[in-house]
User: Fold SDR family oxidoreductase from Streptomyces himalayensis subsp. himalayensis.
Amino acid sequence: MTGAASGIGRAAALRLADSGWSVAAVDISDTGLDSLAECSPNIRPFVCDITDPPAVAEAVKRISDEIGSPRRLVHSAGIAKVGQLLDQDPADTLRLMNVIYGGTLHLIHAVVPVMASRSGGQIILLGSIAGWVPVPQGGGYGAAKAAVHLLAETLSVECREQGIQVLCVCPPAVETPMLDRMRRDAPAMFGPRPGLTTDAVLDSMDRALARGRLWAFPGRGTHAMWTARRMAPRLVSRIIARTIVRH
Assistant:
């Protein structure tokens, strides 16, 4: 479980622990992890920077030694930076790609061989509808999530014979501390609209896992937006751009 100190990752860790899973809660710092671990004896905290491949490999080894080989990876760790793309330092945009896509890649390289050696498992990656539907002021974040989507689709094919199920969950805005920061940085992107609850995201994830799906689109209208974007991409992009300008 990555990104476990807050938001979707924390909610997922608590849900799994309450269901009797032994949960390895991973985040870049111990802020939030200690209080999470106090919520359940089934949760063990592990500090790890997912952009550091040796650190990721070492963390997976420690988890395997102390808890057991991973059977389910829920990868929720990520960062966000919003604003006009050309107003941002390219280094900041590339950092989004390094954390969101690069971190996913490092985890996959560390976890999949372990799962494959133990007859399979489940890989759940947190994508975003922003990676399917381009949003003004969200170009860097959306591009990184789009890369995760393609990685998930490729991985689902390449790992099928190894007994590994892949699911990519693509929610809209979710009420998390990260969304609070995004609202402060770019209030026009969200306006007064509330985000989806973490429970709604996890419910969608559970249903998709049970049905053997590759994609989950939590929230009312999210799947319709994805479908519309595929069928009429220019029209959907114009509508979204106008909506954001009005706000």
